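Reader question, answered in our methods column.
A reader sent in the components of a multi-part assembly and asked whether the whole thing could be modeled at once rather than chain by chain. We filled in our standard form and ran it. Here is what they sent:
COMPLEX SIZE: two components
ENTRIES:
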Amino acid sequence: MTTDPAVRVRFSPSPTGHPHIGMMRTCLFNWAFARHHGGQLVFRIEDTDAARDSEESYQELLEALRWLGMDWDEGPELGGSYGPYRQSERSEIYADVVAKLRAAGHVYEAYSTNEEVEARHRAAGRDPKLGYDNFDRQLTESQRAAYQGEGREAVLRLRMPDQDISWVDMVRGDVTFPAGSVPDPVLVRANGKPLYTLTNPVDDAMMRITHIMRGEDLLPSTPPRQIGLYRALADIGVATVMPTYGHLPLVRGEGNKKLSKRDEQTNLWYYRERGFVPEGLINYLALLGWSIGPDRDVFSPAELTAAFDGTGISPNPARFDEKKAEAINAQHIRLLSVDDLASRLRTHLTAAGLTYDPAVLAAATPAGRRADRHPVRCRHDAQLPFRQRRGRGTGPGGGREEPRH
RNA sequence: GCUCCCAUCGUCCAGAGGCCUAGGACGCCGCCCUUUCAAGGCGGUAACACGGGUUCGAAUCCCGUUGGGAGUACCA
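And here is the structure of the entire assembly that came back:
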């Protein structure tokens, strides 16, 4: 395999639930990396789990990226030369790859149930929770026929290479998994539908992805399996470029745990509703595992992409600190022009079902920008003049509109 | 259990062997400014997990311990 000098990265979420703040951070790093290097960002939807994926969620993902101002070069709604970009539309491609893998002997049919695997571990005196034991690798024709005779349906598993698997991680340096520590993964379900374990590496290979930056939560299982599969894909001519991996530190919530989907703080819209501006949120997110330079933490998206070359990413997990996020956001708000802020305020006023008077808004905005942490609070300021006019006869802006900027 | 990852103030980041009596930011605590709340100014609080090496010299390199996290699905 060769190393392709042009940078091609991807953002490949599954459309389940609302846009997750951790996911957005992952996308941000990929976006910044692509923009910095003048490369391409491929936006791909991994919707191979019909039971969990939803159209609403997909639409929210699009809206999320647009709101944050992260543009992509290939993807749904846009096209590109490696499409389609929704995995649910790529069935024939996967079927073709599977046929080749099968012909080359890289995959095999497995009939074992989890119970049978555990029973075998127990019988051999091993920990029953060890995972799949690669038992079906050496099934004979007659054994296979017997299982089929019972009406069992097989999953397709990848024959993992019998060597240590190691790679140089962009964030962590050398990482090695000993041979035999990762069981043969299932690539295709018994019902014939491909799994993420197959589609993700296949698409990365076929879309010529050069760098894979994603969350650390995927580190223990995914890279070994993917590298194993990549070798097989190279063998059958599907993969030409071995991507470089970079595993980004986890974003944690208030506890010490990874941000959980049930926590409202993981939902991107939570921040938008609370008055975060995209610039502010992006700035804060970038601070989680990275820094633009010594003793500096306020910067624009443009400054981010100019500086973000993929080096210097911290390997340790970061806690999402809402207070600091708000503080960074507030600095961005103060950087906004009065007109700009006023127009953004309008959205919030309208969303809150409040009427607004342009004159009042114009008067309150400078004060709001000067003082408040986010537009939601400015909104209260914008209402203030009404109260004051009634109660104390003070003019719009409460006398605070003196031009101090 | 097994595999992998991580380890500097409460939190995030700086520090890539001597510049460190460890710096910035958020938070917190004072004071100043201010009709309120903010914002702003000034000051303060607070950390290199532990133990061994290597070295003239270690927050920085190596090993171990401890602690934390993640994964261990026909989810992604």
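What stands out: Chain A has 14 helices and eleven strands. The longest strand of chain A covers residues 165-169.
Send us your own complexes using the same form.
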